[in-house]
Prior knowledge:
Shape: globular
Subcellular location: Cytoplasm
CATH topology of the largest domain: Rossmann fold
Order of helices and strands: HEHEEHEHEEEHEHEHEEHHEHEE
Distance between the termini: 69 Å
CATH class of the largest domain: Alpha Beta
CATH architecture of the largest domain: 3-Layer(aba) Sandwich
Radius of gyration: 20 Å
Family: Belongs to the methyltransferase superfamily. PrmA family.
Strand content: 25-35%
Number of strands: 14
Strand order of the largest sheet: 10-9-8-11-12-14-13
CATH superfamily of the largest domain: Vaccinia Virus protein VP39
Amino acid sequence: MADELENWYRLTLLVDAAGGDHAAAILWEHEVGGVEMYDAETYAEDQSIPPVPDGTNRLIAYIEQDSPEQAEQSRDAIVASLTESGLPPISVQFGSFTDTSWQTAWKDFFKPTVMSKRAIVGPPWEEFEAPEGGTKIVIEPGMAFGTGTHETTQLCGEKIDRLLGEADSPQSLLDVGCGSAILSMIAARLGAAPVFGVDNDAHAVEVAKENLEVNQLGGAIDLSTRELSTFDETFDIVVANILTPILISLRDDLIARVRPGGTLLLSGITDVQVDSIREAFVGSELRELDLAQKGEWVCFELQRVSA
C-alpha cells in the first residue's frame, strides 16, 4: 500500500478565473486522477492551501506515475498545453502526495445543477429527477468542457430553453465549441431538430459521443470536428460558448450560419469584454436583443437581420 501511495503527485495551479473551467478540461485531457477547483469564495479543507486571490481559480490535479521524473514530465506537458491554449498558469506547485482521500472527495464538487426552467444536469452517481415537463441530462465530469456548473453554460441553457419554448415548430441548432455536448443534448431533448455540434478537439467530440449514448441521444445529434466554413446550411439558433478572442476570430463564419431572422447566442464573455463583442458583432447584419448576466459572465442574444 505504501508503494502505491508513493506513486501519486499533486499539481496545484493558479489560473485566471475567466479560463478556469477550460483549464480544468485540459487537465482532464491529460488523464489525471481527479481535479478540484476553488475560487475566492471557497477554500480547501487542507489548511496548507492558502485562500484564493480574487479573479483567479486554484486547480488541484492528482497524477499517478511510476517515478518522479515521469511525474515531472506530466506536469510539464500540462503546463505546456495550458500555455498553448492561452491559459498560462500564474503559479505552479508540484510534489508527491500520500493522502488519497481526494479519490472520492472530488465528487463533492459536482451536484445536480438546474440549467433552465425545463432542464437539469447532474453526474451519474447522484439521484435526481427532471423538472415537470422537462428533461434531465447525465454528464460524467471531466474530459470535455461543460458539466453545467459554469455560469456561461447556464446562461446559454436558459436562452435555448426559452427560444425553443416560444417556437411554433422545431428549431434547427448549431452548437459551436460543443465540448461535452451539454447544450446540444438539452436542445435535442427540448425539441430542437436537427442539432449539430462541432468542436476542434477530436478527443472532446469522442467524449461527447459517449455522453450522447449515456443519454440515449446517439441518433439525435450530429457531432464532428467540421470547420464552420464547410457548412452550407443555416440554422434557426447558433450558440457559441467559447472564449472571447475565438468568438471574434470566428465572427464571419458564425454570422453566416444564422438564417435571416434567426438567433446567435454568444457566451464565454466576461462583463469587461462586452464592448469588444458588441463592436465586433452588432451592426447591419445583427441586432442585439438581450444581454443576460450571471456574476461576471454574460450571454449575448443577437438576431440576424432579414435580407
